[in-house]
Description:
- The complex is a heterodimer.
- By secondary structure, chain A is α/β, with parallel strands linked by helices.
- Chain A has two domains: 2-110 and 187-267, 3-Layer(aba) Sandwich (Rossmann fold), CATH 3.40.50; 285-531, Rossmann fold (3-Layer(aba) Sandwich), CATH 3.40.50.
- Chain A contains 20 helices and 20 strands.
- Chain A has helices at residues 59-65, 92-99, 111-114, 121-131, 137-150, 169-182, 199-216, 227-233, 251-256, 261-267, 325-333, 359-364, 382-394, 398-411, 428-441, 458-475, 486-492, 510-513, 520-527, 536-542, and strands at 10-23, 31-44, 48-52, 75-83, 86-87, 104-107, 187-191, 219-224, 236-241, 244-250, 285-294, 299-309, 314-318, 340-345, 348-349, 365-368, 446-450, 478-483, 495-500, 503-509.
- Chain A has a six-stranded mixed beta sheet, sandwiched between helices. Chain A has a six-stranded mixed beta sheet with strand order 16-17-18-13-19-20, sandwiched between helices.
- In chain A, a hairpin with a 2-residue loop joins β9 (236-241) and β10.
- In chain A, α5 packs across α6, α13 crosses α14 and α15 (428-441) runs parallel beside α16.
- Chain A starts with 9 loop residues before the first strand and ends in a 9-residue tail after the last helix.
- Chain B has 15 helices and no strands.
- In chain B, α7 (148-162) crosses α8 (178-212).
- The longest helix of chain B has 36 residues, at 91-126.
- Chain B is globular.
- The A-B interface holds A 67, 69, 71, 96-102, 105-106, 108, 110, 113-119, 124, 127-128, 131-132, 162-163, 165-166 and B 214-216, 218-226, 234, 237-238, 313-314, 317, 319.
- Chain A: This is Peptide/nickel transport system ATP-binding protein.
- Chain A: Its main location: membrane.
- Chain A: Residues 17-267, 285-526 form the ABC transporter domain.
- Chain A: Keywords: ATP-binding, Nucleotide-binding, Transport.
Amino acid sequence: xxxxxxxxxxxxxxxxxxxxxxxxxxxxxxxxxxxxxxxxxxxxxxxxxxxxxxxxxxxxxxxxxxxxxxxxxxxxxxxxxxxxxxxxxxxxxxxxxxxxxxxxxxxxxxxxxxxxxxxxxxxxxxxxxxxxxxxxxxxxxxxxxxxxxxxxxxxxxxxxxxxxxxxxxxxxxxxxxxxxxxxxxxxxxxxxxxxxxxxxxxxxxxxxxxxxxxxxxxxxxxxxxxxxxxxxxxxxxxxxxxxxxxxxxxxxxxxxxxxxxxxxxxxxxxxxxxxxxxxxxxxxxxxxxxxxxxxxxxxxxxxxxxxxxxxxxxxxxxxxxxxxxxxxxxxxxxxxxxxxxxxxxxxxxxxxxxxxxxxxxxxxxxxxxxxxxxxxxxxxxxxxxxxxxxxxxxxxxxxxxxxxxxxxxxxxxxxxxxxxxxxxxxxxxxxxxxxxxxxxxxxxxxxxxxxxxxxxxxxxxxxxxxxxxxxxxxxxxxxxxxxxxxxxxxxxxxxxxxxxxxxxxxxxxxxxxxxxxxxxxxxxxxxxxxxxxxxxxxxxxxxxxxxxxxx
Amino acid sequence: xxxxxxxxxxxxxxxxxxxxxxxxxxxxxxxxxxxxxxxxxxxxxxxxxxxxxxxxxxxxxxxxxxxxxxxxxxxxxxxxxxxxxxxxxxxxxxxxxxxxxxxxxxxxxxxxxxxxxxxxxxxxxxxxxxxxxxxxxxxxxxxxxxxxxxxxxxxxxxxxxxxxxxxxxxxxxxxxxxxxxxxxxxxxxxxxxxxxxxxxxxxxxxxxxxxxxxxxxxxxxxxxxxxxxxxxxxxxxxxxxxxxxxxxxxxxxxxxxxxxxxxxxxxxxxxxxxxxxxxxxxxxxxxxxxxxxxxxxxxxxxxxxxxxxxxxxxxxxxx
Lengths: 551, 319
């Protein structure tokens, strides 16, 4: 009668799950915080449930609880996790080990990091199967090759002999899916499996995962912050916020008729209306036929690139990883001196090398980075961080400097109270705001924004973009906005340069670039952006004219 | 084997040879700066100016320093380390036996210390922050904190004097049976093991703990591997480069840093030989021993570098 709790057809039944962690805030006694508050869910055999929410919503924590696993000091302190008719929380360590890799498998966000660099792929793919003794090595390898084929990996017979660094990110993500499927589990936890990929690669991986789930009848928890992605693969969607359930329903209901305000906010498209400014007569910065290379000229990453930037306007540079977007920024700032071509600023050529540029030129070009937390010295306060360019470029000291720091904090909509805080005490969005203030402090003509919103939750990113646009109006600063996200481009750009393998393949005012007829690559890029439509994935795959480079 | 890796290894070896040449210059220069005169030292206080001049001419001491350096270096390269001033014996012949003794002792100390240190390191990581970890770290730290002579004398007191299991004086001679030889070196080898153990153990622990944060360790845990297998199969292979480095440094120490232990146990190795001749101001012997120590040090570090290169799958299997 041990199975009295089990409902027929139900694979996973989580009841009143409570998850806690102990945190050690600096200078304070350790305290216990609750990450997940009494969340319940059920998942039937062969179904896919999407868990969605912003960072800190507890999605991954709930997902991993189905394997009895807590990251860091995370503990499951209450509730039941009933898998295949038994409460796994009662099974102890030994019980967890028996179900991990056999009944439940895990696909991580970054397969590139989740594969051990020291072992061949095949050894890692069959490891769990062999460990649990469900097949012999020969059988397991045969199964793996069949899965590689199903996930349309190139050279399925031999790809297993390769090491992780010899395979691209999109392929690794599919190998990881094969690894999860290899031990024929009942449930797979997909933890943001396509978030780290380029849009053009994401669509292939997504399609491969969807087919594999359908053909193997495995159930899945699909964790992501991207509703458009989860709408393609899930039967049901659960919206979480701050570790609490917000809404749970069928995919169609959640995206078409959300009942909760928060779900509605997530679902509605946040396009910022940004009227395109016509390019002025003279650009203040022009990049002319720049070619740049790494490794002493061996690896050409920029080929004959020319773009212009006009005062107070935004040039968006889009393309997938490895297309040369960030290298263009490095060439402009002098971090990577171009081999050929020139960068002119205010009608005169800029020195190629950073070291040869006068302080005044350095001041005019500032940068903001993707990872705000590593771009700041963790041992300096916000006041010191923002005050540094004031001292360095303008020689400001004491009261005058503090007044200007306060003014800048005000501009980024953060009060004076932040002046003595350390970066660790700020949220992701606040950190990025401080970086913006630091770059503005130099009163530059141009700020290069390198994927500044990519690491942020959509709603926070939205706020940052609005701030950037407002500051542009006030300060008449120009942006070179590097991103892979086309939605961002639409909301901020005046002109767009599409880059592919080191070349600018399409360049012009926003309205022109985004109007058909498209070249093959721009078409691929635009058609790969997930839309919140059921069945979009199949349509998009069918309509493609070229394969993505990540494969 | 692919070409980038061969190129890297060739570079390391070439660099090592250059470094060794530079060290030889330093050793030669250092002994030249020392006050005193070799001819005076050989002939003593009562030598006449004529005989001193004659000997200087005979030894080539009147030639410029660089000519004497190249003469010395040429000799070293052809296996002629010169003759000891104090005894008049050929240095190469006397060093041979001594070097063999030192290597013998270092070898057996290493055979015990290296695996023990790594296994203790693995165990410490497995039970990290628990009492097992703290006990291992504490004991290892204590054993390195005590000076070598203290450990040596404690060992002699208990094992040689009180319980009389092993000899307190490690005399070895040519043709000594293997068993007796092992018994003779038991105490110095134990003392050396205790000295080098902690450094290697703590480095192993730190290097593995560093990779325990990686996502692939989590992947392994989520496959259901036991905690110890996660460390052995997934963490250890990625921590191997820093571990090899510290192991090689300690092996070098076992060979060149054993002076104190050799003196305590009166073991006829290189260290004792060096100390004897430093007190006698026997410059050619000091030069020869210094050069050999430098060669051992550089050689082991090259091996560590090469092992780290070979252990890196990115270099071993390029794209």
